[in-house]
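Structure ticket #2291
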Amino acid sequence: MRALLSVYDKRGLVAFATGLRELGFELIASGGTSRALSEAGIAHREVAEITGAPEMLGGRVKTLHPRIHGGILANRSLKAHMDDLAKAGIEPIDLVVCNLYPFSEEPSIEMIDVGGPTMVRAAAKNHDHVGVIVDPKDYEPVLDELRTKGSLSDGTRRRLARAAFAHTAAYDAAIVSWFDAGGSWNGEVATLPLTVHLALERASELRYGENPHQRGARYRNIDGEMGFWDTTVQHGGRELSYLNIFDAEAAWRLVHELAALKGKGAAAVIVKHANPCGAAVGSDLGIAYERAFASDPLSAFGGVVALSGPVDLVLAKKIVANALADVLIATAVSPEAIELFATKRKNMRTLVASAPGTEKLAMRQVAGGFLVQEPDVFPAPRDTWQIATKRAPGDEQWDDLELPWRVCGRTSSNAVVLAKDGQIVGVGCGQQNRVDAARLAGAKAEGRAKGGVGASDAFFPFRDGLDAMIDVGVTTVIQPGGSLRDADIIAAADERGIAMVITGERHFRH
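Resolution: structure written out below.
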């Protein structure tokens, strides 16, 4: 039995090679792998000794040789193949152990592995006769099976082959993404790539999908940038469900956006069914949380609470005193707060997470493919907004405008959001017309919108939606503009004596 070892990641290599030697394997190694085995005193033959050709081109060519690939690719059940090996004096290779250069960590032309993927694919193609290992985690299981059974089962070789093809697919996907990002040239690069290559691995099983009869799991990029979910720590509660993650992601991203607003201090967001039902900013996190909860206490039940800072015992007591939350996500949670939640809110999932980061592409599945777009951001700075009406917003209204505008952009369309004094007081979302969205937001405000501000995620096609906002006491409205009737809408605002700000950008969310 012969094994070919050529690995960049040398974790567990010496122990594994020792185990193979104890089982009677002849070892072949190349480059740095050979040096590591020599330093450990493990007997082996170098690839150059097998091929009769030394490494060349700075190591670019070392395993690309018929004496290597003939030994890997020969179908042992075909006499013609075995005759070819005998005629050429080539011995079969029964196990290939290879992992590739860490391209994602150090992307460059020199990190594009050629010989490695060729060996891996060759062994995976011939998995009926050859085992292939690309992950050090498989060393022990393979050794155990070889020790107990003397050879690898068909099922094991098939499993290893699948992992090998996934490994090379992810590797090629990372290289393509680097090309798309302009990594290898200085020319102009298209905003959206000609092709999109997804290489994902299952990171965690979920209790179920959107509904109990649907299976669900969270997948993550292979050899790509790690998302915040991979470093999130959960304290208490059952395992996360599909909707727990979906809603928590929406809340976590929004609370970071609000916390980053200039001069707004701490931020708190409560999300229900992917839409914010409460949001507020304040001088400290406790005040922000209390005001976010007060936005809509009824809808807050069973929602996701996202906080822009750490949770101490004082804040934890406030959370416990309010309606049950399914998930709490924050930057940190004190041991005393965790202990309190374990006693008083044992079913609540308490998550400690890092900043969410920014995705490069936003994708949504459709029949036969995906819709792909750039992520929605808020590019227009506040100083580009235009006052469209005779009346200008007062200082208090200016301070409040950005909060509902941001929240509105993260709320299902059609959306209208009302706010006052750094607190969201009414949200109308997911409506087929803007009038109903405005009326729903006004009803939830329950009189708290008087003297406040209102945001609309898109222009007003008619004045009725605007009138519905003004009727509940809004004195300033922010909207993107762009309607054929903008002049009529502005005239209506002047007629009602309110201020209107035009941003010039729309933020639909479907």
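Closing remark: The two ends are 58 Å apart (CA to CA).
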